[in-house]
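job 3f2a | input accepted
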Amino acid sequence: MKITEYLLTLKDKKNAILESKLTPGLDIKNIIGIKIPVLRNIAKQYMKDEELKQFLTSLPHKYLDENILHGLLISELKDYDECLKELERFLPYVDNWMVCDTISPKVFKKNKDLVIKKIKEWSKSKDTYTCRFAIKILMSNYLDKDFKKEYLDIPTHVHSDEYYINMMIAWYYATALAKQWDDTIPYIEQNKLDTWVHNKTIQKAKESFRITDKQKEYLSNLKRK
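job 3f2a | predicted structure (225 res):
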């Protein structure tokens, strides 16, 4: 059975309605409604299937579920060059946050020196979700043991009116405050972020259980008008 035909047998109308509300602009007719944990299992199932290559090259897809599965399949690829090739083929077709945020290539963790160069490139993209993806990977992979203070500068060069880009930047800095407070707080103190992102970062940081009450009080006093 072809992958898309199989996905259609798993239609979940209730979840499709929920996902349509979470992804404004997408026609519910193009949402099958398969839950992401199920799609993750399907991705692992199809990694050795002969239809995989055909599916990865059959762009654009019709359904949200196909795009989520596509991103999950890319995330499972073990060869860095192959993964990067398929990712860059796919990114221009990503048109919503749900697909964007489920792409998390495992092989990136073994090639961080190469990936950071691509992050800098992708973050300059005019495409909303290519840019968002760059900041998302920066947040996921470079705020712990591979953190470098200089990486905090990357999102400061992004100035956008796009909600889904700005939300990701705010999420990034809020997470950075939780994990790397001393290096990150100057970005708030010195007003290095656009006003909306600055205030949203403070809001999200204050919602975090990883930020102390004393830090939250301090952040409250840094909110801009």
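job 3f2a | The longest helix spans residues 163-179.
job 3f2a | closed
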